[in-house]
């Protein structure tokens, strides 16, 4: 019987993409970039590479501190990478957008007696601020953040830390829910956990591993979790 649900945050419950887009638009305009769309493409290409390295075990802070300097240099601008990273963290920390229906989903799951936890990669202060500011904090009994644990999903040690703090948690009574195949689904698979891929865009799965289940919306997700 299902007792624990570990939720990813970004683009699973919180609308990270919307906040990221607004934040980057602000940053690019502030530092004099005129072709915003091209800037977004260059930054996101490099940022995907950065997070792929982090998910493979690289030290996150040096990569994050230089991602703006590297992306802006490709765009012909010289900036102070660590300073822009700090500025961007402040902007992201005030991204309180939730995906429509997220609060109702969590309300229903909590009312059904499930124990809800957060398992997210990211900067600790930023993620905690967003959980509080979005109003989602009361739904979660525990929050696990990669920067605090010293390892990021998909590293199995990320999930080991969650299990260590929850002695009653087992592979049979726990499920991981997330939108990212490479971190959420692969991480849960490596930890021998059931997992649900939240895939609202109904993207194809190019990976060699398969999620336990795939859902396109919160209605399907709630059904799978409660039945």
Distance, first to last CA: 10 Å
Shape descriptor reads globular
Low-confidence stretches: none
Q: What percentage of residues falls in helices of 4 or more residues?
A: 40-55%
Radius of gyration (Å): 18 Å
In a nutshell, what does this entry contain?
The chain is an alpha/beta fold and 227 residues long. The protein is built from 10 helices and 6 strands.
Can you give a write-up of this model?
- It is a single chain.
- Helix 3 (60-74) packs across helix 4 (81-93).
- The protein has helices at 16-30, 36-55, 60-74, 81-93, 102-111, 124-133, 146-149, 156-164, 181-190, 218-226, and strands at residues 4-7, 115-120, 142-145, 174-178, 194-198, 213-215.
- With 227 residues, the protein is an alpha/beta fold.
- The N and C termini lie close together (10 Å).
- The mean pLDDT is 96.
- The protein contains ten helices and six strands, in the order βαααααβαβααβαββα.
- It has a six-stranded parallel beta sheet with strand order 3-2-1-4-5-6, with helices on both faces.
């Amino acid at each position: 019987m299902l007792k624990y649900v570990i939720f990813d945050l970004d683009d699973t419950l919180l609308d990270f993409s919307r906040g990221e887009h607004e934040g980057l638009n602000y940053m690019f305009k502030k530092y004099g970039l005129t072709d915003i769309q091209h800037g977004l493409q260059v930054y996101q290409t490099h940022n995907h590479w950065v997070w792929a390295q982090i998910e493979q075990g690289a030290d996150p802070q040096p990569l994050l501190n230089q991602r703006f300097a590297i992306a802006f240099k490709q765009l012909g601008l010289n900036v102070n990478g660590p300073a822009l990273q700090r500025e961007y963290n402040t902007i992201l920390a005030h991204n309180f957008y939730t995906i429509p229906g997220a609060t109702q989903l969590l309300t229903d799951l909590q009312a059904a007696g499930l124990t809800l936890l957060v398992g997210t990669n990211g900067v600790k202060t930023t993620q905690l601020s967003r959980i509080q500011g979005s109003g989602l904090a009361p739904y979660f009994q525990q929050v696990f953040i990669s920067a605090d644990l010293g390892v990021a999903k998909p590293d199995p040690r990320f999930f080991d830390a969650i299990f260590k703090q929850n002695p009653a948690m087992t592979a049979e009574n726990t499920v991981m829910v997330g939108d990212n195949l490479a971190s959420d689904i692969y991480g849960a698979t490596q930890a021998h956990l059931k997992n649900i891929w939240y895939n609202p865009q109904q993207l194809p799965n190019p990976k060699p591993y398969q999620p336990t289940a795939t859902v396109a919306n919160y209605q399907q997700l709630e059904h799978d979790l409660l039945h």
